[in-house]
Amino acid sequence: MAKPLMAKATAVWLVDNTTISFKQIADFVGMHELEIQGIADGEVAVGVKGFDPMANNQLTQDEIDKAQANPLHKLKLKFNPAAAGEEKRRGPRYTPLSKRQDRPNSILWLVKFHPELSDGQIAKLVGTTKPTIQSIRERTHWNISSMQPIDPVALGLCRQSELDAVVQKAAAKKAAEGGVMSDDERRKLVSTEQSLEMGTEPKIPSAIEGLETFTLGSGLNSEDEKKEEEIPDADSFFNLPSGGDDEDDDEDPRL
Predict the structure, then answer these.
(1) Residue 40, class by beta-carbon neighbours within 10 Å (0-12 exposed, 13-18 middle, 19+ buried)?
(2) Which 8-state DSSP code applies to residue 210?
(3) Where is pLDDT greater, at 42 or 212?
(4) Closest residue by Cα to residue 155 from 117, 100, 93
(5) Window from 31-40, 46-55, 230-239 with minimum mean pLDDT
(6) Same domain, residue pair 55 and 151
(7) Quick one: which of 14, 55, 160, 163 has the most CB atoms within 10 Å?
(8) pLDDT over 70 for what percent of the chain?
(9) Whether 78 and 132 share a structural domain
(10) Rounded distance between C-alpha atoms, residue 29 and residue 10, angstroms
(11) Does the residue 11 lie in any domain?
């Protein structure tokens, strides 16, 4: 059910100027019955000026009379042809001025790590326009050289649950189309919680399977190894045996 403009101010006016029950007013303005009672007691909406719904084309006098005569009657908002379709109109997400300078960095992050997301999904997620996204995809943005990819959740441009929902939707769409995803693409398409729970054990490429037990050897056969063992070391060439003749020559012949 559509609600009136300035609901609290409208409730203040109805409490002050009619005898409609608190329940009827609460249902009409979308507030709790105790809040309407608080307005009547002066504890809620203190200082709020009443907003006349009849003067602003939201209620008719006949509708108010019916509600005052019958406590079970529900107030109905006056139909305004000019307001038809206004509730369905959705514009881009509002981004505070302090965070707008970081928005291109978040778009670059989404384009880099989630290329499966469409321009429309990114535009709704961070509150931007499709031409801006396209310029970043094609790297024709005027500031592309100094941009750094930053997670939009870290920048506060969207919630993690919103990002996960968009990514899951993209994953379901790609699966329905029959697209084959690699391990890296599948890891990107799942939510953050699921990605953290995935195993991190590295996989060995099929081209080098079986080499994990390979050990380096000498490459020599048994005969070559025997010959290598028979070759004396250098010290053996200079380790001459002590001879008795030299000692005899050194002795004095007169003794």
Answers:
(1) middle
(2) T
(3) 42
(4) 100
(5) 230-239
(6) no
(7) 14
(8) 61
(9) no
(10) 7
(11) yes
